[in-house]
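ok so I'm stuck.
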Amino acid sequence: MVVHPRSRGVPRVPRYSGSSSLLSVFGYGALTLYGRLSRPAGAKFASPGGRQPGYAKSEVDHLCDRLVEFFDKQVPIKSSEIRSAVFSPARGQGAYAEGPVDAFFARAVEVLLGVE
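replied:
not stuck anymore, here's the structure
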């Protein structure tokens, strides 16, 4: 979320592609997802610490791209597609930590359920 220092905590819509229409159609919940979705592939989430397992970055990034297509181009996606996603296990720099990924996609499901 981008907050202007003089806005008294009122978030302003960042200038990402499609963000203005994103807010008007899907509401603030979708806007909370967009910051992470706008990050580059391979850098959307932190890697797991140490020898902890995680999810394959390329697979997580692909599902994130599907959400971007939905929000920016109205390419259909259902909450069930997010819910049923299974990512291959990975470790080290080729992985994202599981907790943040799970929390993000749980929030995405909530947003999609709001418009289905």
